[in-house]
Amino acid sequence: MSNKEKTAEELKQAVKEKYSQISEQSKDYNASSCCGSGGTSDEVYNIMSDDYSKIEGYNVDADLGLGCGLPTQFAKIKDGDTVIDLGSGAGNDCFVARHETGEKGKVIGIDFAESMIAKARKNADKLGYNNVEFRSGDIEDMPVSDNIADVIVSNCVLNLVPDKSKVFSEIFRTLKPGGHFSISDIVLVGDLPDALREDAEMYAGCVAGAIQKQKYMGHIKEQGFENITIQKEKTITIPDDILTKYLSKDEIEEFKNGDTGIYSITVFAQKPSGESEDDVGEHEFEMIEEGPTCTPGSSCC
Length: 301
Description:
Elements: H1 8-22, H2 27-31, H3 71-74, E1 82-86, H4 92-101, E2 106-111, H5 114-127, E3 132-136, E4 149-155, H6 164-174, E5 175-189, H7 194-197, H8 200-204, E6 211-212, H9 213-222, E7 226-235, H10 240-243, H11 249-257, E8 261-270, E9 286-287
Parallel strand pairs: 1-2, 1-4, 2-3, 4-5, 5-6, 7-9
Antiparallel strand pairs: 5-8, 7-8
């Protein structure tokens, strides 16, 4: 059965099962595959993720190598802020956010894999953080009140969700007026080969669940966000030794030489404060920093 034929609940269940398995895998294994989904590569290390190790608040035990960007680096978190991390995993971005928001702030991580929640809570206990909380829940229906967050972050998670428009609706609901998000995610330009798009493992691996870049940005605009900005963008290259699991030699060449691009983008947008009538589209799709192109053997991968 292809992903197109699977129901949203079937896809979410497949992702939940896969991420329960991923929670027990090593960072090295996850970082050398597509978001930990399997089929590790010998050609490239860190296919998608960026290096957190020099960022303050980083905790090695909480880093499972599953991200595709550094959203907390761009999130403009201030002392005392309330921050929500969508798909919080073992807690890595939550702990970085906690460094920025300080003891006066609050950080809430949301994940639907119970094994991830357990791992994150254990890490928070070891660090002695009493203002970092992990809640089990679906980010399409967040277990938080309206207008509660100053900042929302997420790292390579929304591509796993069938109804991305619903997630952005929930982000809008839970942000305070004037609050903002910074989200790293995978998007496409052009169409993936059917064999990649229809494979459940590649869906869990962030690739098959990705949608067109313009459609992704359109979902954000449709919810009423303003100051929509692409803060960083980099090309994602899937190594040949992973592609050979899905495509023939000729299909790989056609894919690599075609018009399809897979990108990691970090997107910023703000919920209107209600104090002015600013033009929502004024800064739409502005690019303020261009990331490096990710090619086999390069450090960005």
